Records
---
Amino acid sequence: MEKIKILGYEIDTELHSGRRGRTYRAIKSDGNEKVILKTLVEYPSARDVARIKKEYEVLKGIRSPGIVEILAMEIYNESPILVMKDTNGTSLAKLFKEKHFTLQEKLEIAIQLSEAIENIHHQEVIHLDIKPSNVIYNSEHKDLNVIDFGISTRLSRENPSITSPDKLEGTLAYLSPEQTGRMNRSIDYRADFYSLGITLYELFTGELPFYSQDSMEMVHFHIAVEAEQAYVKNSEVPQNISNIIYKLMSKKAEDRYQAGYGIRYDFQQCLELLHRGELYSQSIDLATRDVSERFQIPQKLYGRGKEIGKLLSSFDRISNGSSELMIVKGYSGIGKSALVNEVHKPIVEKRGYFISGKFDQFKRDIPYNAIILAFQDLARQLLTESESKIRHWKEKIGKAVGSNGQVIIDIIPELEFIIGKQPAVAKLGPTESQNRFNMVFKELVKVFTAKEHPLVLFIDDMQWADSASLKFTENILSDGEIEYLLFISSYRDNEVDVTHPLVSTLDLLKKSDCTIQTIKLTPLALSDINLLVSESLKREAQSTFSLSSLVLKKTNGNPFFASEFLKSLYENKFLNFVTNLGDWQWDEEKIESAGITDNVVELMSTKIQKLSQKTQKILQLASCIGNRFDLKTLAIVYQNTEDQTAVDFEEALQESIIQPIGDSYKYISEGKYEEIVYRFLHDRVQQAAYALILEEEKKIVHLTIGRHLLQKTNEEELEENVFNIVNHLNIAKELLEMEEEKIQLAKLNLLAAKKAKTSNAFSSALNLINVSYQILENSWQSNYESTYEIYLHKAECEYLNNQFEQAENIFDSILRNANNIEDKA
């Protein structure tokens, strides 16, 4: 209290006290202005500080009915305090317990709250935490305001990451299905309508539609269980009102209302019927004024019913104790990842785990790249669980890997946070070392594949897999003891011929007892494209047939391209919403004559080139890093601070060219920049950004990136980051002029080769040591020690890759040039 008096406020009453902070009603000391003060606890977490600052940034300058008015943000003892206008209201959560609302009052609240959310969305903000405790209502003046914008976003879409239900942003009882991260859907403004539906359900019935003390069960309720209609739960609720609430609570965003005005209009109709005494006897047609001017392509899969059925049948079988490989193949953009993500819903019901990794065309010599990403994903999921569950996993993993835990940590360092420091492992010969690696990894996989929690492991873009990862796949899937595992492998079949290593791996698996299912995705038919177009434009199917034919002709039925083509028509004003008609209009002749490209990379390049020069530069750098990258690395290669990089990068997020993974991007001031991770919307977008770099400049860009990464990496972190550094420098090695820098690159490749060899990635190790060998070949006189070590490791790597003749030649060369008996021995 004393601290707040120093700021010049006199406390009247404490309104709320919680784990994160307190809220007070106060009066400004120099006048009679009543305010609300939102404070944090004495030692707040970095995220709580970031949240309150975020709320201030979102709300400052907004003066709109139904949105709390922020007056100032004060800083005291480095902790922010929000100063808000006091409307002398009380939260709906408190009023639910203290006051009995009449039906008219409930309808008036519903109308005002619908309008408030409409106004929030007009400010290009999605609230993401609509619930009774975040709605302040003054019963006397009938004044309603929505508060607490700490987790809101200004992006048009968010992509939640999978985390423990207890750690989800928002409040689980009011959370939309897509906010759980388990719906194969991104989050948009319609998530607020679902939360509004839950809030109004509670307002009109006096109860929540779903309740369980088991958080995973609550997630299952939201994504898969239809709520009991409000009029069934409470017979006093008129069916008209119940129908509105039921529509708001639809599992798919496309089935909810699409605009705040449409909700408000229907509630106003109910209020008019109530005044006429006809609310219980007359029915209304829902959503007659529910027209959105936003161009939204429905987030659902078109023309993939059979394929979804086949995928879910596979999951059903492995949930009963089997193990399967599901191969999903097709061209880029055909919808492989979108199809695979349909498995999320049944996973929740079975309390399973879904982990995924993706190979990158620019990181083919980084061993286990996608496998590492997948198990990092798993480690992050486990670390969001309760302390007792983390202890449980520590015990199970520790028992499974025994004294060989370091073998796993060398590849997936994040697991050290769960199982703790591990003893060094004994040095073994190549064959024994490989056997140990295979055995330990199999035991780790078995920990997570059980009846209580089946595992879905999805590895994307296998056409770019390294040989060690292919061997890992073969070892896991040919082990008859592993059950409750669905291993999904996707690849572009047009980039894989009979000589590709992936084909050999699949042939070996077919000869084993592994059960293999295959889904081949083909282009969409005209009927599917037409359904996509008609549902996007809220039109009858027959009225969009000719436009759909044009889309099919331009995109060859590729779903990603079709969606992007439609978006480009909208952005270039070939598709327009005519307000007075309440309908979408277009001119096919103009579209035809505009000469819009039928190449998706060109289309995405055009989109990127409309952005500012700063944003284009960052996107080009990001495309060199990979499909997925973190803010810390991006800032290093952009040569700027993380905060400024995020500001210059914002435009790419707003245009959905780049998507944040999870919600950490909102809390940049929290300082954990390596946890703020982004990905390109699609490989084709990354390809388009990379194509914008002039061919003669590409190596210069990679050289610059490699140098900056090396400069910013300290000695302790070097081994962990060496693959990324040499990946860039090797591309540009011809540009190195200084002998000192060439020798440094040779040593870095040696370090990377040793690390790859330790992980039994022998092919990658040979590729890396070959770079060192090319640089220091016959440098026995000028750089004896490094040359000796590189030759020795090259000989060993040749031998491990069954290149025995080459290995003998290198050994002979060492014996000829070694200058002492120990080295010869």
Note: The chain has a mean pLDDT of 91.
---
Amino acid sequence: MPISAWMATAQPRPKAPRWHILSPWWSWITVPPAVVSILTGLSLMGRDQRESLLVVVSCMLGIAPVVLFHLYRRDTRERNQTEKALRESEERYRRVVELSPNGIVVYQNGRIVDINASAASILGTTSPKELLGKAALDFVHPECRFAIEERLRGVNERLGADPLGEEKFLRLDGHPIDVDVTAVPFLHQGEPAVQLIFRDITRRRRTQDALRASEALVSVASNLPIVLFAVDRAGVFILSEGQGLNALGLQPGQVVGQSIFDVCRNVPQILDNIRRALGGEAFSATVPVGGFAFETWYSPLRDASGNVIQVTGVAVDIARRIQAEQQLRTSEERWHLAVRGNNDGLWDWNARTDEVFFSPRWKQMLGYQDQELENRTEEWERHVHPEDLARVQAELQKHLSHETDFYATEYRLRTKDGSYKWVLARGQALWDEKGRAVRMVGSHTDVTERKWAEEALKRAKDQAEMASRAKSEFLANMSHEIRTPMNGVLGMIELVLETELSPDQKEYLDTAKHSARSLLSLLNDILDLSKIEAGRMELLPATFSLRQSVEDTVRMLAVTARQKGLELNVQVEPDAPELVTGDPLRLRQIISNLVGNAIKFTDHGCVTVGVKVEEQGAANATLHFLVSDTGIGIPEEKQAWIFEPFRQVDGSTTRRHEGSGLGLAICARLAELMGGRLWVESRAGQGSTFHFMAPFETTAGEKAPQPDDSLDGRVSNLAAAVRPDGETPLRILVAEDNIVNQNLILNLLKREGHTVELASNGREVLAASQSKSFDLILMDVQMPQMDGFEATAAIRESEKVSGRHLPIVAITAHAMQGHREQCIQVGMDDYLTKPIDLAKLRAVLRKYARRSSPAPVAHT
């Protein structure tokens, strides 16, 4: 029954109109006005007229009941007919609803108020009354409940049916079902309601799904590189799908309905296989067809009686697999040839099963025949040197854990005779899609001879280092032994020069002093070179004023330049940083050497020192130092020599300029140590320009001290700095075991006005410091019975109780790298080297004179 018919017949019975023509209300309203009208008309007429009118009225009044009765009977009959039709329509609707295979539910205010048997059955009960009063939406699946509720809310508003389509309902047992739903607006007992008409489409959907799956299966089979076929008892194709048919020149489905004995008559093996399968045998066989090879599986299907009714089969082209197998066999043959012919031992480890393969060569390297050593990981572990096993396993685990790309390590393996061989193990693992190692293949290379060579080289290196250390110790001792007498020579010359001398005597002593200074300079150069070659030269970074450091270095040579009549210039570019961080001592050493050489090899003209910025960074700068002169120049063919030790441009015995040839070699090594380089540009007779470039850290925000613009003024300031005017006399304890040095230091200090007491060894120093009061100790490092280090340590230990601090200055002939740090570490306050520089000695005395208050003391 159509939904529109249901809507028409389902309406409630209509009520009789209130204003019916024969109703009492109508009579009371219409009869009195009619009577009044008649009486009024009669009163206004004459007698004759009234009689005529009365006759007419009488006739009309006689006819009126008849007419009214007829109208009443007709109205009653029509009403009865309408009610009867309505009852019959309702009965037909009820029968249709009850007999409908569709579920019909009427719900009002969210509750079920009417339901047919089909709806109850679909929802999982045989009694419709069981569902009356329940919430209608409880039977809607939660996935679509909200959407259906929103759409049903507007059904009465739209006054039209709403086909909700395919949705999911829930049975009473909670089992989901698929339904096709339509919502219709409805009046129940005069109030708005909604009628849901639905039918169970679960089976249809399953059938559709199965059909789609079947179609998808056929579609998949049609696109696979296989042949899927079926033939009936007579050998007629009932199925023929798959892209593999293209190899046979056929299209999917093309041979359906044809006999296989006609289609494959040129391939007798296929026909024999079909006969075997129709005979009830299930098997597989490989059939070559042209340039293809099909591996086919035949499966007979039987009826209930066990008779074969058809044969199904699947054929796959395995030509590529056969080719790959052939290539694999070829590869394996090559592998075996490589294993037999390779000088390295090969191994293959299965990480999942722990199975391992060792090649015959691998075993032969250890002195075993192939059959003498089992292919087991335990055998490998048993032969690894116990000291190497843990390390090797750790390296292996790192590779298996993806920490290293390759496995490579060296370790020792025990041979058959009990000795050990060094092997270089290399390998590469293979991982599955989850990152787990499944296999690892590698090789062993015998590196025993190389290891022996490395050991020999290491021993030679150790011996060389021992020789280098011995050389360093020898140089340190020689430095001490040479500097000690040199200290006496220079000191005595200084003392004599300060006495009244004749011009000839002064000239002789100046020459002796110059020679001693040259010898001392040569000794310092040799020590510096030995430290650099031994790798013991270390830079000591500090923050310093670039401009002041350069100008202070140059002004030390200003007197020499003025004596030769040379002009000495310093040009620091304005953009150069004021403060830099680096080793100022080594920078001054390089500049001093370059400027000293320039003055030495220039007879007239000028020497210019320039500084400019080569590269500028945020916190660093590469500085370019230039030292130019107008001297004799250097021939191009000899420019490479000058940076080598003991090499000079003029190496003849008649050369004019003195020198050891070590200065530029040391400067070049220092430049490299500072991260820079040193080179020269020169032409014979046209002067030279030495370039030195190195990186320095820059310091922003600080201002460097302003230098004196007058270079001559700075030289005079230097001289004033070493004058002893106004110094406070000190009580000094001198620890020195050499008699010459004792006399020298005693005379130097007494001439400066200081009180001096001598001690010949560390024990005397310790005793004197505990019994007397001193302002300063000048401590020799090397002394008998107790050296300067032990004496200083003992004094510092006693001061922990007294709470006072006695300044101790080391005086040593050692000048090797680290010796100053050693002195400071044991508790010394300062450091002077022999031969004693009078200016440096005075500077140290002046430094500690400020810390002590003057007091009258007796002279010894």
Note: DSSP finds 25 helices and 27 strands in the chain.
---
Amino acid sequence: MARGQAPRLRLEITGVVQGVGFRPTVWRLARELGLAGFVRNSSAGVEIEIEGARAAEFAGALRAAPPPLARIAAVAESAVPARGDADFLILPSREAGASTDLSPDIATCPDCLRELENPADRRHAYPFINCTNCGPRYSITLRVPYDRPNTTMAPFALCAACAREYADPADRRFHAQPNACPACGPTVTFRRVAPGTPVAMGDAPRGREALRAAVTLLRDGGILALKGLGGYQLACDALAPAAVARLRERKRRSNKAFALMAPDAETVRSFAVVSDEEEALLLSPERPIVLLARRPECALPEAVAPASAELGFMLPNTPLHRLLFCAPSGAPPGGGAAGPTPGFRALVMTSGNVAEEPIVRDEQAAHRALAQFADAFLDHDRGIFMRVDDSVVRRVAGRTLHVRRARGYVPRAIPLAGAGPAVLGCGAEVKNTFTLTTPGAALVSQHIGDLENHETLEYFLETLANLKAVYRVEPAAIAHDLHPGYFSTRWALEQQGLERWGVQHHWAHVASVLAETGLAGPVIGVALDGSGYGTDGTVWGGEFLIADARSYERAASFLPVPLPGGEGAIRHPWRMALSYVAEACGGMLPERAAVRALLARHGEAEAANVLRLRANRALSPLSSGAGRLFEAAAALAGLCDRNTFEGEAAMRLEAAAGGRLGEPYDFAILAGAPARLDFSAAIVSLLEDLEGGAGPGTVSARLHATVVAAILGQVGKLHRATGIADVVLSGGVFQNRLLLEGVERGLAARGLRGHTNTRVPANDGGVSLGQAFLLRARLGATA
């Protein structure tokens, strides 16, 4: 067949297909099949035209073996007139008016690590080594197509050697946009901080000297602020008790666990129990922080994770992090060695930010904000466009669940059923994310944080503007929480010219699972968290809904109890303990050991004030929050009277149970609309157990079993009444492993199907997805 008569096909491919070695893979495949034509990036994805006798084989072969980091969302194939091309070419990118998916930032690949640690390689000990299979993506991308001029690498002109790699389709650095080497790329700088003085900006060690100075500082017990991939981090030797205590004191971080970094999975095993699946997560290209069970013989200081049964470990996700564990020699490439730093087994690696503010991304801001925490800075001159924190995950019942979704996972799109308009879900107040939708997918932002201050709201607006620009998305409508005091709600209501729609918090939790799973509903939704704005003037939080994408009915809830002083009771669980005891005992405080201990710790006069406050409904709204029940029990068991971070008391109660469920206490399900789950009998029995000498572990195991039994009892009633067999479990309380696993086992034993969040967090980090999904359905998304 003559070339001009050969069939010619056009393929338009969307998904994560830029910055992942897609064009070199297409080029090699076309050559193998003897095809002519071209491939090029566009702002919409990748365009391919092929002609030749084996053109029909091409699409199937590409789908069967795409680049490892690619995610093909769709392939539109059409026949076009043959052109008689003689070769297969990679053409320059073009603007197409639409937008493709960005790749998340990817941890350093094994090939680059081998070069990093090879003294003979020209990139030996270079902190910014990367290729098409790894390195920064989302954090450096200004716009699409994903080409070097559209990234923060634009200021760095390629040297001749890097330019040859960049231009060679057979090289693994072909069109690796962050490609660089010590001769032409970014560099690191080490600067010490003198207490009470500005950071010195004059002559400072650079390159390898800066790396050696940073490692020496850490080895000597100092605190280092380093510019990571998506922002600054604060690091110290995790096995140096004085350094850890000093960092905790400087950050004013009372009890919340620090994230940890170790050089390899084997070292992590010396501190924590690591399953094969957890090791795979540690080693994955996403390199998240993985929550792991602490070993009893763990040598880490208690100050790393006070009273926590879990440790959050990650492995180095950038070459710079790896070099903190491998001290580079002073020799130039071709000589010297890099080896493990003696006695250096783990680093604290926590976010570089002021309390409750977002992670810092640029040098000037870091030097202003973090000098109070750090003894020195390890800066670099590669810009960060999208700041992004570390992701946190855990393995539960054979699945990976997100606690915080950010680096490595964002902005990976979540497919949505059908087509719908572009909308924005603004998210919640704490653990905020926002969600933008495209016609067939949802883009959930990285973890923004708690919208409690101007700085975090600015981060929200900055990230929203960036994602709208990069993805060319302009929402037609906005969904927001019903709570009028949320920053996200107030901002949404200020936007003019757009439809604005309030979504009940717990319906959004349930809807986030519908969005992930494609369930049409109706479902029995169990949404358990601390609090969410209710439509009846009370604070909701232990909710059972019959729901789909169009409507919901509140079928049942935990029995509401007064929240003494409103949010003050959330910070001080001992107040909720008194409220639950008074609710269970007719407004009185019984003579029980746990109650006497509470009074001894806080004073009878203060307790009397709490009870008086409890009776004032204007100051003590009713709350059905499931989280409040666990916090009250933690205070009664003497585990935690004050939350120094969100959920601390409940986490301590779960840890005390030691991974087991006990014999359930009695409880009642009170008929009504909605029905009420009453735990008064359980509180009385818990007090009796403590009076009889039972320890915190016993009462925790029994209370967890009680809540599991109550949930299963209420779900069973709803199943019998409606015939619905799909049960959705969402809300931050379902991050409790004991609770989630217990409920899921019970559902399976009853022939019911349990569903929970796996693509976004079950906590408020998933609320924005639910909001956007519901608004999209309201505006007429098509199936």
Note: The mean pLDDT is 91.
---
Amino acid sequence: AQGSVITSSGTPAPGTQLIIKYNVASGTLTAVADTSTPTLGPRVVSVDRHGANFLAGWSLFNQQYVLLAQFPYPTGSLNVGGHAYDFVRNLIYAEIPSANGSGPPVLHILDTDNLTVRERINLPEDLGGRSVFSSDMNTLYAISDSGVTVLPVGSFASAHRVAAEEEQLQFLSTNCDNGLLTQTLHLIDLGGGHADFELSLPANTNGIQISPSSGTTPAQVTIQVDPTAFSSQSGTTVVPLSISSNASIGISSPVRLLINTKSPGQRGIIHSLAGEIVDILADPSRPRMYALRQDRNQVIVLDTATFNQVGVLRTGNTPTKMTLTRDNRYMVVGNDNSQIASVFDLDSLTATPFIVFPGGHYPRTVAVSDSAMFATSRNAGTPAGVIDQVDFANRVATMPSTLGIFDNSVNPDSVMTGSPAGHSIFTAMADGTVLLYDDSYAAFEASRKDLNALGGSYSAISDTLFMAGGNLFNRSMVQEGAILGASTTSSILVSSGSAVVINAASPTSAGTAQRVTASAGVGIAGASTQTIEAPVTQSILTTPPVGQIGETVLSFLRTTASINNGTTIYLSISGFTELPPNFDQPTPSPVVSSLVNMADGGQVAPGSLIVISGSGLAASSAAAAGLPLPTSLAETCAAINNIPVPLIRVSPSQINAQLPYEVVGSANLVITSPGGQSAPFNFNALANAPAVFRTGQAGSLTSLPLIYRAANNQLVDISNPVHPDDILIIVATGLGQTSPPAVDGAAPPADPLEYASVPPAVTLGSASLQLQFAGLIPGEVGVYQINAAVPHKIGAGSQVPLVIQQGGISTSFNVRVSNP
């Protein structure tokens, strides 16, 4: 859409649409003469409660007539569709037919700032004009095909709408876990009630069992995957799980089942991230990375130490690319369905005033040099795009009439990026044109078109070397060669004269990663390494629901980033994949030398915390981010008697883990790492093997047993001896199985407590202590607590033996007992 403000006395051109505003206070009329493709249909205007924003046809404007957001792919039909603001719930209800839409009419429930779709509701027929609310704002009356449709919007919140709490579920098979893979799907009724549901898979899907496949919400659904049914797949298979309900008024989004059967030679760690992720960016000043989720109009902020989500930023409609200002203080995001660029303060993770673009200009990419900021924009109603110059201080963009000696007419499928030193801005276009802005001369100084097409990854490697789709260009925009192995479908990360090139034969295959030394077109390729998942190689402009409103494929996609001193992150089917810095280095085969309990280095029992020592156990070091404990860390897993082992921490020489509760008697351990599989390590697991942790410290004393006096909650030592009538709290491992049964790697609950199945006996000298509790500490995997009462009559001494005996196995140590 394009517009210009005219007064009430002005005369618009024939065929121009008018948006007229009446100011009650001043009694004046102003109007915007609007030209749009297609026409702003349906012919309906809706205004928010305060008159700050309004919807006209398929466009959302503010009072200054800035187009904040629009419905993608509108048909422009004047007599189909409609919308209305819900002042009470701060929502918009709208039916806007789309050019590539199909199926029955759908009412979209949207956010009022950027038209993000929250929910979809089935309509009995198409709306066709004005909608009005009842006085209590609980009923919406909308003109429709047959007359008037009555929508009880006040009761939508309590109406049946079946949904899954999870957007996608991962099933990761390893050589340590050859059994069925199990995940739980939680189905709820967003209305808070009980609604029927039915789950279905595509026809001829094998290897997946769902129980129950139908029922009533709320429900926990167990999904089991037989990895052998997918063993012929080297990458990740995506299986959509559809949800239907007879009682639900809403349209349920399908759940993606992501099934990966990793072999030992495949490198990489998959991190699940749902949605249409179209850009990824590392923060050079903070331990963060950013992922642009287009279907939710969000920037997802992730902590690079744990990859946990730490924030969400709301963008305009259909965000496309992110960039940082030169001081790394602000992030600027282009939007394909908003005539604004979103701006965020990264110190506070808050939105700041947006950049307003000329009417009809939709910024897709923004680039920054030391003294200039430019954007490539889609230009509404024309086949060509333009480059706009941004005044960041005043948050406004203007279109230069020319780009120096070049016409300001570019391919709309273009990208821009600034060089690391800030001295130039490189532009690559899908038609093969490349363009360079030189900050020293404040001018666009070079442009060439030696190729028929460009696409894929792009980068300004330096002020003199640039890359698009693996092709290298010098500052004169002359092609100087190509990065070996790269193509328009490659994910490529270029830095410090080297490149990581990630390819895949198909989206569902495994990828291959290769490090290439590149300088002015001369390349030396390293060994090729197979990766766990294929990279994403194209960007599709969509708005939810995916597949319902059409799509436009963009040629360029930034899919890689470098974080944490050399770790490569690339967008992949499940979200993103982490490749360690040494992914292309030879990894030794794992060798196990010992397995002992973590408390005192002795024997082990079911549920014990254990320490595995050896060499080549992992390619790098990593620790579990939370509970339940994972069974794979840093591309390493362990299996005991073919049972996967919950892992706490891994390194090349040591693994801290929990012995599964199922393991008792003769057992063998096998480690699988990028270097292969270890030979079986044989050991014996006792039913009970009590061991007290020796990690206590009091003053200069270290390695004290973890025995506390409940009276003061301090460790027992020479200066804090045991007293008559004390309650001793002993922290241990190895007390074996529990009642009710504990779950491997999971945090024990506080209710019910999980008691040791075989109660231990505790003696202090010749006196027996009364056992008050022996079981797992809530929230602590594999850590047991013994509470024992000291009798009133107890012999004193500086070296009194305290003995814990369980199932014929005992452990002991001396403590000081004072009997004043």
Note: Residues 147 and 178 are 61 Å apart (CA to CA).
